[in-house]
Write a structure and sequence with these properties.
The protein is an alpha+beta fold and about 240 residues long. Helix content is about 45%, strand content about 15%. The longest helix is centred in the first third of the chain and has 16 residues.
Length: about 240
């Protein structure tokens, strides 16, 4: 089953039984970052230096690359192409309303089911409890191998680790006897740092932060995708 990184991230964020997403706006920033990863893996976006008075990097679509066939990614690329934006701004905009669109795709894939209900018989709420857990178990196994067994992750897995760490959720997804939450977070940060420092053949940038401490890691993988980014990351 071929899924987007953004679909996988939402699946991991959802509570298996209740089908709810953690509170706060960090998860939506994470989903925006995951959509950026999907665009980068397809070789559709990269970073460029902003011209003019306000210096800094901006996210730009790559010239000469056909638009994604996937409608969701095509819409995301169109939003990026509106004008050059900082990674933080771009991720924030991509994350807006992404949750519902991605959840609809998970429902269509049969991975979750949609439950529409009212809280206190008044306030509408939608939940997405698990329907078929096989794909999520595969994702969690890859994450556990990376964070508990020191396996070298591929780019998709490394990006998921970085995004989960950024939204403060990695220790809830990966649990093991004898390895505390703090150690899981430390190992996840090491993976994110390797990704950001170019430990893999990819450019990367740390972007989109909450006003407190949450940072969303946006892996810009156009270079890796162009050179066969599916290759395993070795850190060399």
């Amino acid at each position: 089953m071929s899924t987007l990184v953004s679909e996988d991230l939402l699946l991991l964020l959802l509570d298996v039984d209740r089908g709810t997403v953690p509170s706060g706006y960090a998860p939506d920033l994470g989903l925006g970052g995951a959509l950026m990863v999907d665009l980068a893996l397809g070789g559709h976006v990269d970073l460029a230096e902003r011209e003019g008075m306000w210096r800094g990097q901006v996210v730009v679509p790559l010239d000469g690359v056909p638009a994604p066939e996937d409608g969701l990614l095509a819409a995301a690329l169109a939003r990026v192409a509106e004008k050059p934006r900082s990674p933080k701004d771009a991720v924030t905009r991509l994350g807006k309303d992404a949750r519902g669109a991605l959840a609809d795709r998970l429902v269509a894939r049969g991975l979750v089911e949609q439950v529409d209900e009212k809280v206190l018989w008044l306030f509408p709420r939608t939940r997405w409890p698990e329907a078929d857990g096989r794909h999520e178990r595969e994702l969690r196994a890859a994450l556990r191998a990376t964070l508990l067994d020191d396996a070298d992750p591929d780019l998709r897995t490394a990006a998921l680790v970085a995004l989960l760490h950024a939204v403060g959720h990695v220790h809830r997804v990966v649990r093991a006897d004898g390895v505390g939450d703090r150690e899981v977070k430390r190992r996840a940060k090491a993976v994110a740092d390797r990704l950001g420092d170019g430990g893999w053949p990819a450019a990367a940038v740390t972007a989109a932060a909450t006003e407190a401490t949450t940072a969303v890691i946006v892996a810009m993988m156009a270079t890796a995708a162009a050179s066969g980014g599916a290759a395993a990351a070795s850190g060399s």
